[in-house]
Amino acid sequence: MFENRLKALWAQGRPAINGWLSVGNPFIAEIMAGQGYDSITIDLQHGALDYGQALPMFQALRASGVVPLARVPWNEAGSVMKVLDAGAMGVICPMINSAAEAAQFVSYLRYPPLGQRSFGPTRASFAYGGYDTGAANDQILALAMIETQAGVDNLEAIAATPGLDGLYIGPSDLTLGTRNGRLPPGFDREEPEIVELIRHIQAVCAKNGLRACLHCGEADYAAKAIGWGFDLTTVSGDTRLLAMAATASVARWRELVDGGKAAAPAGKGGY
Q1: pLDDT tier at 264 (50, 70, 90 boundaries)?
Q2: How far apart are alpha carbons 54 and 126 in whole angstroms?
Q3: pLDDT score at 271
Q4: Residues 140/109, Cβ–Cβ less than 8 Å
Q5: pLDDT tens, position by position, 38-88
Q6: Is 41 exposed, middle or buried, given 0-12, 13-18 or 19+ CB atoms closer than 10 A?
Q7: Range 30-37 contact pairs with CB under 8 angstroms and sequence separation of 24 or more
Q8: Cα–Cα distance between 51 and 88 in angstroms, integer?
Q9: Within 76-147, where are the H helices?
């Protein structure tokens, strides 16, 4: 049976932890998939990868049972439908700024009569049993990113979009877009004005029966967000986790061997 285990988890009242893949490599995808995440997102917007690399990454995720998601580059029919046909069980779409854009996005994920998705689940039909139009319409998640002042201004209307499953907050762009560049981009915001905005988005989700999702840098902040009522938190990603582990290893070596000379700090990277 074609079933989205994220939806089943949420139906039990449990939150989810999401991993993030920005490097186009199936071995890295396989390693991440074995670490206990509930879902993992392949990032085709800012990730260093394309569709040709994403497809074998979806295959690498399959054995672990982790729910495969994808962030598409933009609100465009072709890229949304391609990742679904490759096996994505949910799509995160950036820069949704209006109810019309949200409705358009949802239409790309749903087969008629609920949308305009073209039928041709090339890999998905082999990867999942019972992959028919009804099951796909019911189980695939549509997550719209709120990242701009326009998105915030139209938040209530976006949240009321039929067929939308949740809102995903990108804190870097949300901060840049709503504060006119006054605050730098970054995860795990502590500024009261941004925390209030993040919590407001979560409250609007709850009011409209949507799932609230937040991109985080550290597990401690993600746990705090779950306490606020978020249903899914992404905790860092492959590039930042690799950089942090390497930095810690080099720093420890220098402490023990090289007289404590500091290593160069790892870049924060994007998401």
Answers
A1: low
A2: 17
A3: 56
A4: yes
A5: 999 999 999 999 999 999 999 999 999 999 999 999 999 999 999 999 999
A6: buried
A7: 30/60, 30/61, 30/63, 30/64, 32/238, 33/60, 33/61, 33/63, 33/64, 33/66, 34/64, 37/66
A8: 12
A9: 77-86, 99-109, 124-127, 133-139
Host H or E run for residue 212? strand 211-216
For 201-242, the pLDDT digits (tens) are 999 999 999 999 999 999 999 999 999 999 999 999 999 999
Catalytic site includes residue 46: yes
Cα–Cα distance, 40 to 236 (Å, whole number): 11
Q: 154 with 106: CB under 8 angstroms?
A: no
Which are the contacts of 131, defined by CB distance < 8 A and separation ≥ 6?
Answer: 2, 121, 124, 125
Do residues 47 and 24 lie in contact, with contact meaning Cβ atoms separated by under 8 Å?
yes
Q: In one letter, which amino acid is 68?
A: P
User: If you search the block for the tokens 């820069």, which residue do you land on?
Assistant: 95
* DSSP state for residue 48 in the 8-state scheme: B
Which residues contact residue 76 at a Cβ distance below 8 angstroms, ignoring those fewer than 6 apart? none
Question: What is the pLDDT, as a whole number, of residue 130?
Answer: 85
Q: What's the residue count for the chain?
A: 271
User: Exactly one of 5, 7, 46, 62 is catalytic; which is it?
Assistant: 46
**Cβ-contact 143, 92 below 8 angstroms:** yes
Model confidence pLDDT, tens digit, residues 116-130: 999 999 999 999 988
